[in-house]
Amino acid sequence: DAGVTQSPTHLIKTRGQQVTLRCSPISGHKSVSWYQQVLGQGPQFIFQYYEKEERGRGNFPDRFSARQFPNYSSELNVNALLLGDSALYLCASSLDSRGVAEAFFGQGTRLTVV
Amino acid sequence: QKEVEQDPGPLSVPEGAIVSLNCTYSNSAFQYFMWYRQYSRKGPELLMYTYSSGNKEDGRFTAQVDKSSKYISLFIRDSQPSDSATYLCATNLSGSEKLVFGKGTKLTVNP
């Protein structure tokens, strides 16, 4: 069975640009969460979506937005990119919104802002 | 005070050693406690999770939670070079979507 898949794996963007990252959860999983991991730090929670509704939001500016589609895949959008947005962006899926003890992560999208 | 504190290491041990990795947390309401392994440039991989206090064993790995002291541990027996990775502890509130992670401890097991 396929795990959580994220695309693209690597991305280089210029300051001020916009980026869209994509995530496909494990088959049967309805909850998707997004995390940002800066080098040398643990992942930081950005969003959680369940059944296409936002269920949680971390302490990130409004430049960050996300959505979930009927097939439970998800997109994370970041506008007006800053150098500090350079990080590994991780998507995690879980069976439902309560099952976060068993969240499975994708390989991440490494975003570099220059 | 950070919600989850974890010594970033690095930690270097010889093959076959017993490894002890530790985290402390500040919120006594945290209920689930997870350990993830992250290889370089990869996503975190869930090793095991425990609910509330107690021990849980899975092969060479044992997770331990002491809620009275807000202390969580992961023990690795008979460590192997393939165990070389960054180990992340994480926790969350019951019913909460948000996982709170430590910084991670970088472990190297030398052959």
Provide an overview of this structure.
The complex is a heterodimer of chains A (114) and B (111). Chain A is mostly beta strands and 114 residues long. Helix content of chain A is 0%, strand content 50%. Chain A contains no helices and 11 strands. Chain A has strands at residues 5-7, 10-13, 19-24, 31-37, 44-50, 53-57, 64-68, 74-78, 87-94, 104-105, 109-113. The model of chain A has no long low-confidence stretch (mean pLDDT 93). Chain B is built from no helices and 11 strands. In chain B, strands 2, 4, 5, 9, 10 and 11 form a 6-stranded mixed β-sheet that branches. A 5-stranded antiparallel β-sheet of chain B has the order 1-3-8-7-6, with no helix packed on it. In chain B, strand 7 and strand 8 form a beta hairpin. The radius of gyration of chain B is 13 Å and the shape is globular. Chain B starts with a strand and ends with a strand. The chains are: A mainly beta (114), B mainly beta (111). Chain A binds chain B through residues 4, 6, 31, 33, 35, 40-45, 48, 50, 55-56, 58, 90, 92, 97-98, 100-108, 110, and chain B through 4, 6, 8, 32, 34, 36, 41-46, 49, 51, 88, 90, 92, 95-104.
Features:
heterodimer; A: mainly beta; seven-stranded mixed β-sheet; 50% strand; globular; B: 0% helix
Topology, element by element:
The complex is a heterodimer of chains A (114) and B (111).
Chain A: E1 5-7, E2 10-13, E3 19-24, E4 31-37, E5 44-50, E6 53-57, E7 64-68, E8 74-78, E9 87-94, E10 104-105, E11 109-113
Parallel strand pairs in A: 2-11
Antiparallel strand pairs in A: 1-3, 3-8, 4-5, 4-9, 5-6, 7-8, 9-10, 9-11
Chain B: E1 4-6, E2 11-14, E3 19-25, E4 30-38, E5 45-51, E6 54-58, E7 61-66, E8 71-76, E9 85-93, E10 100-101, E11 105-110
Parallel strand pairs in B: 2-11
Antiparallel strand pairs in B: 1-3, 3-8, 4-5, 4-9, 6-7, 7-8, 9-10, 9-11
End-to-end separation of chain B: 38 Å
For the CA atoms, what is the radius of gyration of chain B?
Answer: 13 Å
> What number is the mean pLDDT of chain B?
92
The outline of chain B comes out as: globular
Which word captures the global form of chain A?
A: globular
Number of helices of chain B: 0
| Largest interface, C-beta closer than 8 angstroms, per-chain residues | A-B, 30 and 27 residues
Radius of gyration of chain A: 13 Å
Extract low-pLDDT stretches of chain B: none
The averaged pLDDT of chain A comes out at 93
Oligomer: heterodimer
